[in-house]
Specification:
Elements: E1 4-8, H1 11-15, H2 18-30, E2 34-37, H3 46-49, H4 51-72, E3 75-78, H5 81-96, H6 98-110, E4 121-123, H7 124-132, H8 134-140, E5 149-153, H9 156-159, H10 175-182, E6 186-187, H11 209-225, E7 230-233, H12 236-253, E8 261-263, H13 264-271, H14 289-295
Parallel strand pairs: 1-2, 1-3, 3-4, 5-6, 5-7, 7-8
Helix pairs in contact: 2-13, 4-5, 4-6, 5-6, 7-8, 11-12
């Protein structure tokens, strides 16, 4: 039975990291899993950004997307772990706090929406792990990436906080490692695998350039020292931050890592024998040419 999901690309993917959407669409097509485009979706971030002005309004704006999926009778599929975390947080609050839910529903009514809570929140990585499974994944891989050593970078909102995000252990995660191994690649352990990228140039960068620089350097050094051919992320924002951090370090210090940063969908797509250009790898800032040559 073909599965169908309501695709929620997210702002970063649509505006800055379109390659992640290309690879997701290509991989899900190859897996015979249908993605429905939903024009009525809006940004999920207001729950984080607007709450400092009006917490309830911010939560209502995020929850409205859940209502859209509810009406379609489909689960939401995100490419970005920040989107995944925002939706999981909103769903948790609406189900655990009746007073807050009442306030949110009063605002949703004004938009003609009703929250039922039927739609599940899925991320591309959780979907591959849970809906396809490791055993089935190994069977459908046609081009095992045996030559590749990949450094996993989980992304905060895929594993934290476990109050409402319970896909994996928050301190000692293992499922992305297993998914990497299913492609035939070797997942290498490195100390920053469960760290955070948020300071590499965005939030911390505006406060402390030194802190931003050190955080990016720490992640890249950790992966490089582990002998990785690439870093594998689960989030377009992590991809953006680590690529920009790598280029900034090279520009300011002359230190060239030459370490491609791939979304897991990129790695999975390569193991399915998909064309690198179809996956959008030619759009990456840090070119994956050495990695692709190694695969050949």
């Amino acid at each position: 039975m073909k599965q169908e999901y309501a695709l929620f690309p997210g702002c970063v993917t649509s505006a800055r990291e379109f390659s992640c959407e290309l690879s997701t669409r290509a991989v899900f097509k190859a897996l015979d899993m249908k993605l429905r485009d939903v024009e009525d979706f809006s940004c999920c971030m207001p729950a984080c950004l607007v709450h400092s002005f009006d917490y309830v309004t911010g939560l209502a704006l995020t929850s409205r997307n859940l209502c859209v999926a509810d009406k379609l009778g489909l689960d939401i599929l995100t490419i970005c772990v920040s989107c995944y975390g925002n939706f999981m947080r909103a769903k948790h609050l609406l189900e655990e706090d009746r007073f807050l839910r009442k306030k949110v529903e009063e605002l949703l009514v004004l938009t003609g929406r009703t929250y039922t809570g039927k739609a599940k929140i899925k991320h591309v990585v959780t979907t591959v792990y849970e809906d396809i499974g490791l055993r089935n994944l190994r069977k459908i891989v046609t081009k095992p990436l045996k030559e590749i050593k990949a450094a996993p970078f989980y992304g905060c909102h895929l594993i934290r906080p476990q109050t409402y995000v319970n896909f994996d252990d928050s301190e000692f995660p293992a499922k992305l490692d297993q998914l990497i191994a299913a492609t035939g690649a070797t997942s290498v352990y490195h100390k920053e695998r469960a760290g955070c990228c948020i300071g590499c140039g965005a939030f911390l960068g505006g406060v402390s350039e030194l802190a931003s620089f050190r955080l990016a350097t720490g992640i890249l050094d950790s992966a490089k020292e582990a002998g990785a051919d690439c870093i594998v992320v689960t989030c377009p924002y992590c991809l953006l931050e680590l690529e920009m951090g790598e280029l900034k370090i090279a520009r300011e210090t002359g230190k060239a890592y030459n370490l491609p940063v791939l979304h897991y969908m990129d790695l999975l797509g390569l193991s399915l024998g998909l064309n690198p250009k179809e996956l959008g790898l030619d759009l990456h800032r840090v070119k994956a040419t050495p990695l692709l040559e190694k695969i050949k």
